[in-house]
């Protein structure tokens, strides 16, 4: 089989989407993340499916990747990483509560939420975001497509304006590595990670 045309189509869609990203929103998100770091607040990150893997990757890149080279550490906490806790909440209370339950009576005033949902309509993500907003915490929402309800609820919206879940998830990882790379350069005085 010759897949070259389809390969080029995917690459072209990725490039077109990258060109549409909102640089002002990325800058705003970076400032919110850095302000939270300065105040020693926790950045709660979570998502479902592929977005849960992305959320784990964010925690890794900030809690180890950058934090290895700075005295004060980032405080990312990925709510989908503790599988026994997630499964217990899902089984005993309901899957729609797996993230909100973990935030209840834990959020502090300087904490923020980084919520990831390709559709922007994942009920468990929205429940947690609505709770955080009720508590007065800021929301960075990462979405695709038209952003769904999460875009509306977000203080800062990092949307991948594309009708493809795969490209959306690619862009969400690009947001991670883009933000991490710039912080790595500005906070650690290093150009690129050596490991």
Automatic annotation (TrEMBL):
Transmembrane segments: none annotated. Residues 33-189 form the SIS domain. This is SIS domain-containing protein. GO terms for biological process: carbohydrate derivative metabolic process. It comes from Peptoanaerobacter stomatis. GO terms for molecular function: carbohydrate derivative binding. It comes from the Bacteria.
């Amino acid at each position: 089989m010759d897949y070259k045309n389809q390969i080029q189509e995917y690459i072209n869609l990725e490039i077109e989407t990258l060109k549409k990203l909102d640089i002002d929103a990325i800058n705003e998100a970076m400032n919110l993340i850095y302000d939270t770091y300065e105040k020693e607040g926790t950045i709660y990150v979570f998502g479902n499916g592929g977005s849960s893997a992305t959320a784990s990757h964010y925690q890794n890149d900030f809690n180890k990747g950058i934090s290895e080279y700075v005295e004060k550490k980032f405080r990312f906490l990925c709510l989908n990483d503790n599988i026994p806790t997630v499964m217990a909440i899902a089984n005993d209370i309901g899957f729609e509560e797996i993230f909100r339950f973990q935030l209840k009576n834990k959020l502090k005033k300087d904490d923020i939420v980084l919520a990831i949902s390709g559709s922007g309509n994942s009920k468990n993500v929205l429940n947690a975001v609505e709770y955080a907003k009720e508590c007065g915490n800021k929301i960075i929402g990462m979405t695709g497509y038209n952003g769904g309800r999460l875009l509306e609820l977000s203080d800062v919206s990092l949307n991948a304006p594309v009708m493809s879940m795969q490209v959306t998830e690619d862009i969400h990882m690009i947001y991670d590595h883009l933000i991490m790379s710039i912080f790595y350069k500005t906070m650690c005085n290093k150009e690129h990670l050596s490991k």
